Amino acid sequence: MTSQATQSNQDSFLRVPSVLERMGISRSYWWQGVKDGRFPQGIKLSARVTVWRASEIDALIARLGK
Asked: Which residue has the higher pLDDT, 47 or 10?
């Protein structure tokens, strides 16, 4: 497998500030949406660090029509 093919299979991860910037929403609205199931659950890296796959956020934005 070439390095280019490997890179295209990898997904980047976003932390909350980047997600909020892409979505154009507040932090509290984001976390309420995650709690309610409107937004995807994150991946916990540690007790204080949660990330989301950029592809999931892009798909969410496309689905919401933003």
From this structure: 47
